Amino acid sequence: MKQTREFAQQLIDFCYASPTAFHAVATTRELLDKSKFVQLHENTSWKLKAGGRYYLIRNDSALIAFIAGTAPIAEQGFRIAGAHTDSPGFRIKPAPEMLAENTYLKLNTEVYGGPILTTWFDRPLAIAGRVALKSKDPMQPHIRLLNIKRPVCIIPNIAIHMNSDANNGFTPNKQTDTLPLLGMITQKLEEKNYLSKLVASELRVKENEILDFDLFLYEYEKGSLIGSSEEFISSARLDDLSSIHAGISAMCSISKPKSTCVMACFDHEEVGSSTMQGADSQLLSEVLERIVLGLKGGRDEYFRALASSFIVSADGAHAVHPNMGAKADPTSRPLINNGLVIKLSANRSYTTDSSTAATFMQLCEKVGVKTQRFVNRSDMRGGSTIGPISSTHVSIRSIDIGLPMLAMHSIRELCGIEDHSAMLKVLRELYQN
Ligand code: ZN
């Protein structure tokens, strides 16, 4: 129980240190460096050795870590877990400063992915992301991560007296109703470039060195354990940093596995995965092939390895809601702290089938973890995940699973401490089979 709570607390720390996909990769990298993983680069040739621990970063926002197996790769194949680094929220637009009433300074933003908008109101918000600076070589801009870890802005609600629809299906307008307030100013707006000045002073660079940025809002407050026995984890970005945290922790805890173990952390799942660092790219297939080549295998060994491999795509799953149980399927009703969720869909928005479910259930059984099933109500469409997308690029048996959670895509999501430890145990078992 103590270990379970400690691991849950580590997840809360991990989420807090990872306000954006860029920071999730940086935080993950720190864990890998501590466990003696070596960074590889795409523009150098790879000479790998059995038992070696490696990782690769693409676009600062996606990462693939792996341990080369000790058995011949063509026979033993890959054991892969996949998850995503990004979370829905608000991205700051270029030239973001806007004035209201000649004195309220607001930031122009656009919505990233599908957040529950109303959960972002009245929360102290901070700003984080990536900033591109001038460099000697234009092909390689100088990149800095930025985390303004202070409550610098807020999206205030309108009083209920001025919005009689506040509790009656209020739909905020994404351009006009959700802009965060950054401060009050007295000068004319044209005279000041507030955000650039703030970024420059945080990074201790000159304002004219800043060429562009990928900056996002995030909830300033840290997550916490919650519940009468602290059985829940309440935090931002549990979807899907919980899977990244469990997968990387599993990988760091093993040494010299027979199979080649891979943890794939993709970006851009929340916006469809179709980018160079998303699951709908050649990232995974290229890395897997380069692993085989780096171990002095050829294409024949690569395809043989794929045929003996297995992917667990781990992403948040919907638990039955305590107040809105009717929204869940009538017979498959996953509960928090009752085991990992196997996701199924007749229209294949999840990759699971009976064969891959059987493999996964047996891995769970070996480490004493229970499984539950999720299917959508037949009159609801539901979401998808990285599994079906990545399996169109690599021919590997695959399953979609996840932690049962509530409030998915809220600024604060809720999952269970037992399930997070269960994910660690099962992914470790996957890697050792
Ligand atoms: Zn997700």
Describe the protein in words.
The protein has 433 residues and is α/β, with parallel strands linked by helices. The chain folds into 2 domains: 2-87 and 236-432, Aminopeptidase, CATH 3.40.630.10; 89-219, Roll (Aminopeptidase i, Domain 2), CATH 2.30.250. Helix content is 26%, strand content 28%. The strands form 4 sheets. It has a 9-stranded mixed β-sheet with strand order 1-2-3-13-4-14-18-16-17, with helices on both faces. A hairpin with an 8-residue loop joins β7 and β8 (142-153). α1 crosses α10 (417-431), α2 (21-34) packs parallel to α5 (238-252) and α8 (354-366) packs across α10 (417-431). It is globular, with a radius of gyration of 22 Å. It starts with a helix and ends with a helix. The mean pLDDT is 95. Bound molecules: zinc ion. Zinc ion binds at residues 84, 239-240, 269, 315-316.
What is the strand and helix layout of this fold?
Elements: H1 2-16, H2 21-34, E1 38-40, E2 53-58, E3 62-67, H3 73-76, E4 78-84, E5 89-100, E6 104-112, E7 125-133, E8 142-153, E9 181-184, H4 194-203, E10 210-219, E11 224-226, E12 232-235, H5 238-252, E13 260-266, H6 283-294, H7 299-307, E14 310-314, E15 317-318, E16 340-343, H8 354-366, E17 371-374, H9 386-390, E18 397-402, E19 404-406, E20 413-416, H10 417-431
Parallel strand pairs: 1-2, 4-13, 4-14, 14-18, 15-19, 16-17
Antiparallel strand pairs: 2-3, 3-13, 5-6, 6-9, 7-8, 7-10, 11-12, 12-20, 16-18, 19-20
Helix pairs in contact: 1-10, 2-5, 5-10, 6-7, 8-10
The structure holds zinc ion.
